[in-house]
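ESCALATION

Customer reports they have been waiting on this structure for their group meeting. Please prioritize. Original submission:
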Amino acid sequence: MYCSKKRNVKFPITITEDLMDQIRAHNKTSNDLSNQIFKDINTGCISAIHVRGGGDKKDLIYDGKPTTKSALKDIYSPIFEQNGWAPKIEAFRTDTLEHILNRYQGYIKRNKTASELIKFKLKDIHYKGPFVKDDGCSLYFTTPAGSFSNSVDYNTQSGTLVNKAHLKKAKFGGNLNIQQGMFVAAVEIPYEVAYEPEGWIGTDINKRNEFWLVVGSAVHAKPDKIATLEKAISEVQVEINKPKGRRYKTDNHYKSSQRRGLRRRWEKLHRKHARLITKYLNPIIQDVEDNHNGLVIDGVTTGAQNGSFGQDKIGKHLIAQCENRRIPFYVPPTSYTSQRCAKCGHIEKKNRKNADEFKCQQCEHEAQPDLNAVQNYQFIGETLHYKGHAFGYYGTSRSKDPRMVKYDDIKSIFNI
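Update from on-call: job pushed to the front of the queue and completed.
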């Protein structure tokens, strides 16, 4: 069965002075827009920002009325004009504005208010839409000067272009990184699984250290080294997240350089955390592959509320290894897996008494809750495979890819 995985294609480029001038103009425009948006939010002129995320709700309220990104772009058109933007690149203007609105939406979601101005550094340009064109040896970038107005050559022999053949269109989006001298675009690479699964193994990822990771019938407690590292990450995160009024106390004053130091430490700890988790998971993946099993990966995403307990890195590593080794796998939603009795199929909230007890209200089957959930994941994998559902991971609930395992698929499998 054919699947696909998302990877990057990297174009090594030498940034010309002409292109750099346009990058500076784009950066100044971004900061001017950010400054105006910050003022409009804090004066109440912009009272709601929801321009990304799942579902149909897309709220952008300006001056008390619902508006669109395109209309807001027209309101802010003097900012573009003052920075010398060419006409007839309206979509690129909207793309630039949307990137800034996304940043404020995320900031407000985390902090409940826009208490600090978001500043954009002169380091990259993010192209969400197809504003870059490839002619085989050069890239043409849409910039404030116009559509595909600036071109640069790239090294056609570079090993970083190994995935270039999978670009489906000549025009695409991506990220132009100034410091690295690289343009990075995402591609979808088709592949075929190495074998038909002879069985399915479920996984369950948990916050509790003693049941940190359950794979099939094997319960893995969190290793002490990983637990110690997560505590250190949490302590640094608390310092980074302190509100400005508390973070800049007279007796505990953080300069910008000190805060950057905290960020660097946080990133270093996360890299070490990822390495330890990778080392721990590799033998588990090897066992799945050796026994020609398929893997059902717990798609838990609760880190924002409960802090990091390795759930993000565990899932990402399992997905990446399954793709690289061509192991059949699914990443279904977690819906009802903790409430469903793996023995009789009855679903009820009362089945899960607490974190340590599961007793079915219908057949009175008792089980350790995490092992019961793993059996439900195994059942999901078996059923999806029987129905011929495509293996692989195709995004979260926001994804429109028809191959994604959806909430409705789980309801159908559990006969809800």
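Sent to customer with the following note: Confidence is low (pLDDT under 50) at residues 53-57, 245-251.
Escalation resolved.
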